[in-house]
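## retry 2 of 3
previous attempt timed out at serialization; input unchanged, resubmitting
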Amino acid sequence: MNPAVPRRLRSSRGENIILDVKNIVPKIKNERRVPAPRAHLGPVAARSARRALELREARHDDAVRRLVAASFALIRETGSLEPSVAAIVERAGLSNQAFYRHFHSKDELLLGVLDEGFRLLAGYLAHRVEGAADAEAKIRAWIGGVLEQALQGEVAAATRPFAVSRARLAELFPEEVAESERTLIASLRDALAGAVASGALPGADPERDASAIYTLAFGWVERKLSQREEASRAEAEHIVEFALAALRRPAAPAA
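## retry succeeded, writing output
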């Protein structure tokens, strides 16, 4: 690849992955669990206890899926990450009591929604990276996938509530949001590690550079969406080239 000739970022519909919901079971802090069967139960009683536990777990998972799916639907329709509990439970076909059996607060549910959105986006970015031909193409694919979240009108409208609310949820749940972000960065970090190992980008630092590129790309997306600025594809391409120019630095001399 000639580094002097930037590849244009491809635009296609359906680039936004954040609101594609399937098989959702958010990992929520302090989730209430039914105690496991006591060790001294006989085999028949133990089997019955396990069946009861599995049934209760299945009901729990189904309720959580319905609540999160209802939240996604309301976010998509209203453009806000602040649907009311009443609206969520009505859409889910559940009660307020059912909601508070599974979540301590609405913010805890929204944390689960944000985490699932990040994980779906992480899978999408990993797929883009995996399909790219070489080291620089993999990095372009990851950054371009992030920037697409602000470049397309419908995609930007769907992504905006997450961009605006991420900082507030990070303040309330710093460890959980940080873990979601690490999942999102993983495919970029792996691509950078591969580029270092192959000699394509010998001066790259996979951990620190992946974090810096995440901050650059998502910072741009969040600014464009939160301030409702028009996102320019030329500006997005400049961000990609800026990041790659930094990654092409020579390796530091051995101590």
